[in-house]
Write a structure and sequence with these properties.
This protein is mainly alpha-helical and about 170 residues long. A two-stranded parallel sheet has the order 1-2. The chain has one domain (about 5-170). It is built from seven helices and two strands, in the order αααβαααβα. About 80% of the residues lie in helices and about 5% in strands. It has helices at about 5-10, 15-35, 40-65, 80-85, 90-115, 120-140, 145-170, and strands spanning about 75, 145.
């Protein structure tokens, strides 16, 4: 069994009860952390947990449940899709919007976990997550590995970060 097959098997066949027990344990630890360290630290830990869960679900839906393609596809030409849209391929507009939208929560959660970090470090972390998704799609032959996705995911991450900064400013 290859590493990719093992990861796929592990992700697909974990019983739901494991997630349920994990969530229960997390909530208990979160409550203890809030009592011990304070609410702000508890929120930070909760954001970290949610970030890990969100990235796991993102990997599941964008890599592991997709059907395997016959060959690996790599598109490293930036903004190639905009030319295709100009030539009439409108379905790519939906993909771009979805790629931006799916990374807004990652920007929000990274901003909560990496509290006090400069914006470009949050952006680099978001780009790192996007690159991991793209590389896994390439390795496992599950979708296109393309630079346009990384660009759009990064825009979504920045939007999420911007929302957190706006909320903080409005709260002050």
């Amino acid at each position: 069994m290859s590493i990719a097959e093992y990861i796929e098997w592990y992700i697909l066949y974990i019983p739901a009860s494991v997630y349920g027990w994990g969530l229960g344990a997390f909530l208990a630890v979160l409550l203890l952390m809030m009592l011990w360290k304070g609410v702000a630290q508890g929120v930070r830990y909760a954001s970290g947990f949610l970030l890990v869960e969100y990235v796991a679900l993102l990997m599941y839906f964008t890599v592991f449940i997709r059907p395997e393609k016959g060959e690996r596809e790599l598109l490293l030409i930036p903004f190639w899709s905009y030319k295709a849209i100009a030539e009439g391929t409108r379905v790519l507009i939906q993909e771009h919007i979805m790629n931006v939208a799916v990374f807004i929560p990652i920007g929000i959660l990274l901003a909560m976990v990496l509290k006090g970090m400069r914006w470009w470090k949050v952006l680099l972390a978001g780009m790192g997550v996007s690159l991991i998704v793209e590389v896994m799609q390439y390795i496992m032959r599950r979708g296109y590995c393309e630079i346009d996705d990384v660009i759009h995911n990064s825009i979504g991450c920045l939007i999420g970060l911007g929302l957190v900064l706006l909320c903080k400013k409005a709260h002050q």
